[in-house]
């Protein structure tokens, strides 16, 4: 839903624009519209009252996307207003990889790995508190509403409480790196949706592929790593990331009513060593 202030800004930015298609996901308070304006197509994203993704997406556009936009592999920001929770970008042609046969093509994953390496490689910062904050976040999620069984909650809580919190190096990460956020056009992969972009360890962008696409297709993992150029997943840090992601998936999906994704979170917990 577009709020009144957002409508005013759209009328100011693109007077007379017409809505071509609604691409909204439906589970979160983000409206995604394809517009026709001045003989071109645009994408508009508008957040609801509780939205915090638009601000992160705007930050990514303004500070981190040059390695992709310079190649024409990500949309370019046209207008943005963080207070109004609204942004507009150029339109990229193509289809979501998830909806095409390219989702099983190693070449798709090689390109995705190469693009991710470009993104991760642009800057890095040391952070002494990241691991502590992530541990505390997981413990808060376990304290909140979910359907993880009590015995598992006790086990996870005891385990996380005993983890060390060493300094780590953080880089710009996409935060939802998987085929539903990749476009393909004439065999070329591009990237969309930066609402979860943030500074994190490199390997956190591997997690969703690992628990979904790589499970039964080691050839896709091999192609992805070939494109990326290395495998940054140190065993202990990777295990901690798997635990946090499993908890986060089960809790977030329960909160928004996505039972399929919630089941994935519970499977991820069950598959932890």
Stated plainly, the CATH topology of the largest domain is called Aminoglycoside 3'-phosphotransferase, Chain: A, domain 2
Query: What name goes with the CATH superfamily of the largest domain?
Result: Aminoglycoside phosphotransferase (APH), C-terminal lobe
Which residues sit in consecutive blocks of at least 5 with pLDDT less than 50? none
Instruction: Give the rounded overall mean pLDDT.
Output: 96
GO molecular function, one term: transferase activity
Pfam families: APH (PF01636)
Keywords: Transferase
Protein name: Phosphotransferase enzyme family protein
List the SSEs and their pairings.
Blueprint: H1 4-13, E1 18-22, E2 30-37, E3 40-47, H2 53-63, H3 66-69, E4 77-81, E5 86-90, E6 95-96, H4 106-120, E7 125-127, H5 130-143, H6 150-161, E8 168-173, E9 182-185, E10 188-191, E11 198-200, H7 207-211, H8 218-228, H9 235-256, H10 259-270
Antiparallel strand pairs: 1-2, 2-3, 3-5, 4-5, 6-9, 7-8, 8-11, 9-10
Helix pairs in contact: 4-8, 5-6, 5-9, 9-10
């Amino acid at each position: 839903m577009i709020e009144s202030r957002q409508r005013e800004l759209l009328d100011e930015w693109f007077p007379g624009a017409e809505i071509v298609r609604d691409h909204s996901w439906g589970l979160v308070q983000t409206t995604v519209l394809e517009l026709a304006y001045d003989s071109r197509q645009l994408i508009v994203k508008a957040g609801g009252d509780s939205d915090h993704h638009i601000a992160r997406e705007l930050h990514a556009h303004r500070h981190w996307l040059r390695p992709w936009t310079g190649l024409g592999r990500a949309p370019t920001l046209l207008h943005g207003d963080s207070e109004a929770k609204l942004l507009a970008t150029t339109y990229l042609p193509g289809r979501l990889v998830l909806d095409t046969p390219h989702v099983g093509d190693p070449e798709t994953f090689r390109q995705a790995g190469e693009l991710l390496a470009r993104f991760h490689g642009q800057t890095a910062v040391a952070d002494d508190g990241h691991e502590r904050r992530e541990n505390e976040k997981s413990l808060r999620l376990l304290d909140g509403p979910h359907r993880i069984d009590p015995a598992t909650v006790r086990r996870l809580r005891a385990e996380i409480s005993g983890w060390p919190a060493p300094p780590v190096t953080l880089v710009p990460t996409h935060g939802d790196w998987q085929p539903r956020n990749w476009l393909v056009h004439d065999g070329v992969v591009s990237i969309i949706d930066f609402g979860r972009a943030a500074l994190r360890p490199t390997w956190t962008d591997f997690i969703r592929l690992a628990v979904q696409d790589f499970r039964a297709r080691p050839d896709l993992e091999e192609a992805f790593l070939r494109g990326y150029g290395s495998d940054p997943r140190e065993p202990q840090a990777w295990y901690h990331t798997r635990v946090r992601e499993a908890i986060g998936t089960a809790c977030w999906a329960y909160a928004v009513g996505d039972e399929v994704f919630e089941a994935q979170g519970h499977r991820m917990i069950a598959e932890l060593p």
